[in-house]
Every structure is written in structure tokens, then in C-alpha cells.
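Re: the pair you flagged

First of the two:
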Amino acid sequence: MSCLEGKNVLNYWAGTGTVENIIEALRKDFSILSKLASVWKGESTVSIEIERLAAYPRSEESVLGGLFWAVLLQTGYLSLSEPYDGKGSTVDLKITNLEMKEAVRQILDGVGSVSCSASSKKLLQSFAASGNLGDLVSAIEDITLASSSKNLTREESYHNILFAMMYCTLTNWLVISEGESGHGFSDICLVPLADQQKTAVVIEIKHRKSSKATASKVPDLDTLAREALKQIEDKNYCFALKKYANVEEVLCLGIAFSHKSLKYAVKYNKIAT
């Protein structure tokens, strides 16, 4: 199938796409995930080379490779920002209607877990309203438990799943991933936009990798969680939050995962003025 016809790029219905392959690509590549999340919120568009538009994926590997954005165009999730006039080597893509915006939201939810999205969202929304640590941790546990074990194999897996769910749900918060602050890059940072909310969150994630041969040499989850919390403090990840006038304290949350189990360590730090 070609999506070019006489220099006119055609869109194809989203239902013909391979949703699981798209979700798998997002789970494996955070740069694509964060870009799609930004496009979904209307914060940016994505540029694609004209020569890629005619390429049609023949396998899962091509979806996971360089044809990701072409797949989203061909299946109708994205459309051209402006009609192509035959000039230039690239075109910009965006979501152009509410139906496709909802379809993309469901894909982003799927990166976390479709089956637990309702309960996870409720817990995250409760956390957003109250700032209650228990709601946030319960939401993270819920997302993890409902995710497939085959998708929980490395630190990036947990990171991408949590980011996708938080980005879609915490609409009145800034959800920042791998933002530079202090002496490094924090995994996930949550910043409230409402003036009455005073507590931001910095999350650092660790993954316990072990086998029978190395089990005795790998720190347990409690130790890893404390190490994650220490990293937040040692690298001063809270520094960048000083620029937000409403933020007065930071909930520093170190989380360690192993399969579907987790432990966490927490500390509240005041923002120095």
C-alpha cells in the first residue's frame, strides 16, 4: 500500500493499524514515547521525510524501526499539519480531530496498562487533588501489577509505563521525564500547575536485576530504594524546581522494582528560597 498518490498524502483508518506493535515500540523507545505524548497534548508536531511516507511496514520490526511515524500517518492516527505542495523534503504531522486524539490517548494508556487504567487514573487523580503519598504509591503498584511481565525487564520499561500513565492522567501537572536538574537528569518530575498546590514530586527508579547465580550479590529492593532516594539528594534533582513560584516542598521518591514487586523510600525536602 502506498500513501502517496500524485503528490497527495492519503490517510488510512486507524482501525487498520497494528496497535500492539505501536504500543510495543513506545515501550521500548522513550524518545518516541515522549514525542508522541507531546503531540497528543498539542505541544508540538513531528516532522517526517517525504521519502518515508511511501514505505509500508511489512513486519513488527519495521514498526519498531524507522517507520513508526509513517505507520501512525498511514493508519490515520496522525495527519498532515498542512497540505503538501510538492516542495521541501519533509512534512509536519499532528492530530487533527477529537476522535484521533482519543485513539492516541488509548495507545498511551496501553503503554501503561489498559486493564488497570480506570483504577490507576482514579488513584492518580486522588493524589493530584490531595497530594497523598499513599495514593501515588498505590497507583504505581496498580499500574505495575496490571502490566505484562514480559514488558518489565529493565529500568526503562518501568520508566516508560509510569510516564505514559502519568502524562495522560495528570493533565493539570507538568510531567517531566529525564529533565536536567542539579548534577544530572531525574527520571520523572511532577510539578503542580495550580497555585494552591505546593508539593512537587521527584521520582528515581531502580531495577533489581538478578539470576540464581548473582542473587546473593544484588542489593535487595529496600536497599535499592534507599540508593535511589540518595541519588535524588546527592545529585540535587530538586534544584530546578526553585523556578516554580508555587512549589514550596518536594516529595523525593526512590522506587526499586523487581518484576511486579516494589519498595520505596521517601523524604520531603523544603525548597530553599
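Second of the two:
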Amino acid sequence: RVSRVSTSSSMSTMDVDSDPMSSSSNSPEEPQDVGVQLAFLIFKMSNPSCNLSEKKSASGLVLSLTKERGLSRLYASLSSNAAFKELVPPLDAKLLKNMQDAEEVKMTELDAAIVDARENLGDTDVRAAVLAKALYVCEHGTREEADKALDEVDALTSATGQKMDLVFTRLKLALRYGDLTQVGKLLHDNTALFASGGDWERKNRLKVYEAVYKMAVRKFSDAAQLFLDAIATFTCTELLDFPTLVYYTVVTCVCALDRPTIKTRVMDSPEVRTVIGEQPSLQTLLSSFYECRYKELLTALCEVTDSLGRDVYLRPHAKYVFREVRVRAYAQFLTAYKSVTMSRMAEQFGVSDAFLDEELSTLIAADRVNARMDKAGGIVETTRPDVKSALFVKTVKEGDALLNRIQKLSKICDV
């Protein structure tokens, strides 16, 4: 996969722990991190769900950013990648040489600034110089070089706020390379750091990173709660814009939350209502699910699923979302009936009897829908789950498992 590199600037409020290179909370919204933006555009270039026009548009933006930022490694990688032969023009050796020369000059200047700071200035200035070099290496170097440079900055950092900003920089670096394992590790390892202090803005930004990670690993219930917590005070514009945040919020909520919560925290949210009108399919998906307009729901679901295939985080889960929303819709519909004819249910969902018959048969067999089918009579009967019986069965199973483990342990102890 093509190397993904970019600028790594962290946004934070200006307090005693603020990084000198971080943005003030009073400044205009920070633009999306270039590396995250490049990662998404390169994903579009290689995504079979995108048409040729979309791929060409993405490649044009990638080349523009690459040349503007002077990213020699990314330019060489794109030009030599056979998969992008139709999208990227042949390598311009002169342009590449100019980029490399400019990078060498800049690195020399950054190294000289570090030497000067160590000889003539204080610890704060030394850290600022080392940080400046690290951010440049994150943009222009390899991932290994970036990690090493950030480690050097970390060794010079003691303030909590500055340590948090470094975590955000590492998170963006991992996301642009698509390394979800590293993202999860960073979030887990720095839980105590964010719990020990920091301002509300940093903590709110962390919720967005956590939500994106949870969504990317298909923990939609956790992701939905985090997105809802962050949406009212959203400031994490270096990772995604607000319409995209609303998009992720609605998708995860429809897959994971109950109808009352969707009504109070999503549909009635002024932040969601401000921008959801710009995404008609998403708005229809949300409203039709809550209002039980199932035919419109399936139509909107098909359109939203197509857009999921174009998203770098949700593409692997597009089929899951498509299936899960249908399962929730079937269960929601059947809850209102003791029994209903197959033809009536098929009419409500705008599908054929044969399709619904096959779909429900599979879901009932998998215990995803609490119902049974009378195929001869063409009737679907709702079965109410027996909570006490289910709890009893679960307790017996867990007890058997515990006894087996105790027996194995006793044999080991006897030996």
C-alpha cells in the first residue's frame, strides 16, 4: 500500500501545559490534518466502489497536495505504483529532485536550530526545536523515522497537556497508515494520562478518536455513545468535519441504540438537525426507522450502504450495517403484532413474499428475530423471549464451564 504521510499538528487550548505549536481554542477551526486527508484520498483512488471520475478527482487532489507540501517519498511511491498507472502521470525526475533538495535544506535548518537552542537557549526552546523537526519528519519521512522523532520529543516533555498533544499526533500518524492495532494500543496505554488531568477540549477530542476507533473495529454501541457525548462540543476538526461526524453518529446509532434514545439524543439534537438536511438519504434512514416507514427505510438503507463503501473506516462494515438495520427493522415491526401475514409484512417493507420468506427463515434460525413461521398458512407469529428461562440456561452453561475448569485445575494440582 502506498505510504501515507503528512503534517502532524495538534490542536489544544492555550494553558500552562499548551504546546507552543498547538492551536489556540480561540482560533478558527483547524483544517483537517493533511496526512489524514491524503490517506482518505488514496483510499478512494484504490477503492473499487468509486467510479473513474471520483478516482481521478481524488488523484488530482493527492498530486496537488503532494507537490504543494513537497512530499518526495509519497510522490515517488505514487508515480511508481502500477495500480495508479491510469490516474498518476509518469514520474517527473526534475520535480522529484527539487523536492528532495528542498527537504535536505529544511532538515539542515531544523538541525541547526536544535544545536543553537541547546547551546544558547533554555529547555523550553530546545523542546520546541526538537518538536518542529519531529513534525516535519512526520510529514516527509518514513513511519519509523516519525516514531523515533516523536520519542525524542516525548523524552523532553513533562507537562500533561503537551504529553496529550503528542498522543494525538501519534494517533493521527497511526490512522493515516491504517494501523488500528496501534490506535487501540495508544488509547489503552494513555487512559491514565487523560484521566489524570487536561482540559475539557482535549478530553472531548479524545472521545472522537475513541469513537472512530470503536466504529472501525465494529463496536458500534460504544462508538455511538462516544459520538453523542462529543457532538455538542465538537472541536476535533483535524480528524473529520462536522457533517462527517453527524454521518458516523447516525449510522452507529441506528445500528446500536433503541428508539427512545434515537429520538431524544439524535433526532431532537439541534446539532444533528443543523446539518442532516444536507444528507437526504441519511435523514430518511433516521426518520423512517423511528417512524416505522419500512419501505422508505430499505430504500434509504441501500443508498446509505453505497456511501459506506466509499468510507475508509466503514467500508469493511457496509454489509454488516445493511444486514443489522434490516434485522432491527424486522424485529421492530413484529413487536407490534402477535401474528401477521407474510404478504402484509412484505407489502410494508416493499419486498416480495419470496424474498421475505427466505430472509426471515435465515434470521429466525439464527435467533436474530423472535418469531416462527407458518409457511402453509403464510403467517409469521411473534414469540416473546422468556427472560427467566434464558437466564437459567445461561447460568447452567456458565456453571458447567466453571466446573470443567476447576476439574482441570485439580488434576494439574494433583500432578
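The beta strands are 339-341, 371-374, 379-382.

-B.
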